[in-house]
Design brief:
heterodimer; A: 329 residues; mainly alpha; 69% helix; B: 179 residues; alpha+beta; 4-stranded mixed beta sheet; two-stranded antiparallel ribbon
Chain lengths: 329, 179
């Protein structure tokens, strides 16, 4: 028995990493779309704002549930420890939840304006600043300050694992980057999914549908290319590292998680949607042809497979990371 | 101030697990819980072949990764170098378990994380850690690393010793004598 292999973090932690990344990604895409074109991409911004707060809440609940003493989780917020990524992450998640709920609220339709619901507040100088006439300014501020925080959340989920020298499979600078890219991919996939299937295209002109669709597909396409690069560099990084890492990479290169990793994470999560994106976009890029008629099947497959791949990636990384041990004489 | 450390003479270990049982008794652990364990390794090819028992417990690192990653400050290091867990602060996030390269931390059923404490209550009263008391070959040696006249300091000077997984920069305070 050379070292013991015990799995202490299971799929519940994978849910948290996935959900936090999904929320962060939806926020980043939504806020970026807002800055790129307030009217042009309004639909993307709005849908992203409606999605962002909910997965992260599920994720936080999963994280608290996974504690051995869930009732004591508030102790995380009594201290701030810059050397502990868990401490940094819990503060980031706290601020991110606040910002994503604010972002959500600011994009609700007019009738939810609290100034209209409770008329008395209108005369209050402090409270009437946040809605009403100042709406555009407040939206911009929340989106602007929210972007760095959500990038922080996207990165934290990877650094949480990557900062541990004791786990050779995780201890790789490419892991946080991979997590961030995957977070943005799942975020944009969720926006696309809700846009196509929950909200639908009622009341949108064909041109509006096309601009939004073109934008989200282009974002997806770029992110997928980058995630292939990140996965390549991640695996290469493990191969060219000391013995423990080179042994650890066998878990996904011939070992226990090979099938799961290459079919679900790479095949379903990246290559399949990438092929469909190419089918959708390349005629437009090269021949400058009109975008294809919207086909719900293509959007549906792209979004669900990206989401499945994103979760599978967290799952494989969580388990493989705990099974790989430092080899030492 | 004393600076506690330990030497484990691996060449003497016969793999009887008496240290584990003593530790379990001392710390009222359940059957499956243990603060120390034996890692068995085989290496070489016949006829140059060897087998070794490696007793592993908390290394009380000078640069402890568990203390660094603890989000609530429950894992801490005392001035005399003993790394402990404050069970009132521990929320059971298990991040320290993931961060420890020696796999020596366990979850108690009350939900906090615990590990070898060098039996510090007994050491302060002049006693020895429990794992030493039942060892029939005297594998372990415990004492003050700051005192040049202590048995352990002299042994460290005289012998060529190694630290376990020292390349991870944990600066362990347990020294191993290898075959």
């Amino acid at each position: 028995m050379e070292g013991q292999i015990l799995i202490h973090w299971n799929w519940i932690v994978a849910i948290d990493l996935f959900a936090a990344g999904l929320s962060a990604g939806a926020f980043i895409i939504s806020a970026t779309a807002y800055f790129l074109g307030k009217e042009k991409y309004e639909n993307m911004t709005r849908i992203g704002a409606y999605i962002a707060p909910f997965p992260v809440i599920v994720g936080i609940l999963a994280l608290i549930y996974d504690l051995e003493r869930p009732q004591l989780f508030w102790k995380l917020f009594l201290t701030f420890r810059p050397t502990s990524v868990m401490s940094l992450g819990s503060w980031l998640l706290l601020f991110f939840s606040i910002f994503s709920v604010a972002h959500f609220y600011l994009w609700l339709p007019e009738r939810f304006d609290y100034l209209k619901i409770i008329q008395a507040i209108e005369s209050n100088k402090f409270l009437n600043r946040f809605r009403g006439n100042n709406l555009t300014k407040i939206r911009g501020l929340v989106a602007g300050f929210g972007i760095p925080i959500s990038i922080g959340v996207g990165i934290y989920t990877g650094v949480l694992l990557g900062a541990l020298t004791a786990r050779p499979f995780w201890n790789n600078p490419m892991l946080p980057m991979l997590f961030l890219i995957s977070a943005m991919m799942t975020g944009s996939a969720s926006i696309c999914f809700v846009g196509c299937f929950v909200k639908g295209f009622r009341g949108m002109s064909r041109e509006q549908i096309n601009t939004n669709k073109f934008m989200i597909h282009s974002i997806d396409f770029t992110l997928m290319v980058f995630s292939i690069i990140a996965i390549f560099l991640f695996i290469l990084g493990l191969y060219v590292s000391p013995r423990s890492s080179a042994e650890a990479v066998h878990l996904i290169m011939g070992g226990e998680f090979t099938l799961l990793f290459w079919t679900l994470v790479v095949g379903v999560g990246i290559l399949l949607p990438l092929a469909l994106e190419v089918y959708e976009l390349i005629p437009h890029y090269i021949g400058q042809a009109e975008l294809r008629e919207h086909n719900p099947w293509i959007s549906g497959i792209i979004t669900t497979s990206v989401l499945i791949g994103g979760f599978a990636m967290r799952y494989v990384v969580i388990y493989a990371g705990q099974m790989a041990q430092v080899i030492s004489s | 101030m004393a600076r506690y450390g330990m030497v484990i003479d691996e060449t003497k270990c016969v793999g009887c697990h008496a240290c584990r049982v003593a530790c379990q008794n001392q710390n009222h652990l359940l059957e499956k819980e243990a603060y120390n364990h034996l890692e068995e390794r085989e290496y070489g090819t016949f006829p140059n072949y060897a087998r070794e028992f490696l007793p592993v417990q908390c290394q009380h690192c000078d640069n402890p990764p568990c203390v660094k990653v603890c989000p609530t400050g429950a894992s801490y290091k005392r001035k005399d170098g003993v790394v402990l867990v404050d069970k009132d602060k521990c929320i059971g996030c298990k991040y320290c378990i993931a961060a420890c390269p020696y796999n020596v931390r366990i979850i108690k059923k009350e939900g906090y994380i615990e590990k070898c404490r060098f039996c510090i209550e007994f050491v302060e009263q002049g006693g020895k850690p429990a794992c030493m008391t039942t060892c029939m070959t005297g594998v372990r040696m415990f004492g003050d690393l700051d005192d040049p006249n202590s048995e352990i300091s002299k042994f460290i000077i005289k012998n060529k010793l190694k630290q376990f997984k020292a390349e991870l920069n944990t600066k362990p305070r347990i020294y191993y004598k290898k075959a």
